[in-house]
Write a structure and sequence with these properties.
The protein has 356 residues and is an alpha/beta fold. It contains 14 helices and 12 strands. Strand 4, helix 4 and strand 5 form a beta-alpha-beta unit. The structure holds pyridoxal-5'-phosphate.
């Protein structure tokens, strides 16, 4: 679906990201990442990997080619970004990141979880490796946690062998195989399977792969419905007096609308976020008043679900601390399911009436 030469399923999206990085980085190495990425990935790149000696520098998802290149160090091994960031919904300028990475002899890894390959195929914009949390739309029913790493086969590891010796020199742990020589375009994904899947034990159970395969058959139908619902809900919310702002790249008012039109012309994803005019208290009340939408930390499955970070995942933070980490106190993350858009809107309408 992504147009790669090979892929590996992993036990989670987090493991897909970790595997994609560890296949290139060792202690003493460095990576450059867009700052607009999933919070769990921020933790992985800036705290956990740091403990293993791998450092990260974060740049804006709107950084210019020059700004991205300026963040590269002699020990940088890759550039990382997320097509549509969870939960900020910032759209990445994939071409700029690919151009900068390639000018520095580095591969670009893209987390394409939210749009799925139905709406965006990052390899066509220059990405070298793509990762997903299949836990989201690919599974689609909140059934199994999973992830996948996809290799485009396009990056010329041999041309940059000084940076990637493990890909071009004999692997002592695998009877002297030389990945670029013996596996050609599939060098990266074969190395990941032979070394990391073997050593870290990250194979998903077969039943997860079976269920994922079935879900993928309906993915194009499902994500179009999710995206249509999100567009309609976002347009409706934008007109409501209870709402201070709506964040969805499909809206003409979005600062990322231009990038969405370029990279995601047929749809974006089902997730939107909005800020309640009444701030933290009104947002918490709204969640208690919704009937169809259930309160969940999970996103991107068949049922509409909603999260108010300030009263749940981030409830220990003051309003000032929330703003400092990019979460408005009145911000609600709203994941549109597969229900009729009218039903989702009716649920919001009755909840607004209940808390008025
Ligand atoms: N990438 C993105 C964009 C995500 O939204 C998430 C989870 O929310 C992950 C990766 C991590 O995936 P998982 O929960 O499958 O480990």
């Amino acid at each position: 679906m992504e147009g790669g030469v090979g892929a590996i399923l992993t036990t989670s999206g987090q493991m897909a990201t970790l595997l994609s990085v560890l296949n290139l980085c060792s202690a003493g190495d460095h990576l450059v990442s867009s700052a607009a990425i999933y919070g769990g990935t921020v933790n992985l790149l800036s705290f956990t990997l740091k403990r293993f000696g791998i450092d990260a520098t974060f740049v804006s998802p709107r950084a210019t080619v020059e700004e991205i290149r300026a963040a590269v160090q002699p020990n940088t091994k890759l550039v990382f970004g997320e097509t549509v960031a969870n939960p900020a919904l910032a759209v990445l300028d994939i071409e700029a990141f690919a151009t900068a990475a390639h000018a520095e002899g580095l591969p670009l890894i893209i987390d394409n979880t939210f749009p799925t390959p139905v709406f965006c195929r990052p390899i066509e914009w220059g990405a070298d490796i793509v990762v997903h949390s299949t836990t989201k739309y690919m599974d689609g029913h909140a059934t199994f946690v999973g992830g996948v790493v996809i290799d485009s086969g396009n990056f010329d590891w041999a041309a940059h062998g000084d940076k990637f010796p493990d890909l071009v020199q004999p692997d002592e742990s695998y009877h002297g195989v030389v990945y670029t020589r013996d596996f050609g375009k599939a060098a990266y994904i074969t190395k990941a399977r032979c070394q990391l899947v073997r050593d870290l034990g990250v194979c998903p159970p077969a039943v997860h792969a079976f269920a994922l395969n079935q879900s993928l058959e309906s993915l194009p139908l499902r994500v179009r419905r999710h995206a249509d619902n999100a567009q309609r809900v976002a347009e409706w919310l934008e007109q409501r007096p209870e709402i201070e702002s709506v964040n969805y790249p499909g809206l003409a008012s979005s600062p990322d609308h231009d990038l969405a039109q370029k990279y995601l012309p047929e749809g974006i994803c089902g997730v939107i976020s909005f800020v309640m005019a009444g701030g933290r208290d009104q947002a918490a009340k709204l969640l208690d008043s919704l009937k169809l939408a259930s309160i969940e930390v999970h996103v991107a499955d068949s049922r509409t679900c909603v999260l108010h970070p300030a009263s749940s995942t981030h409830r220990q933070l003051t309003d000032e601390q929330l703003v400092a980490c990019g979460v408005e106190p009145g911000m609600v993350r709203f994941s549109c399911g597969l229900e009729d858009a009218e039903d989702i809107i009716a649920d919001l309408e009755q909840a607004f009436a209940a808390i008025a």
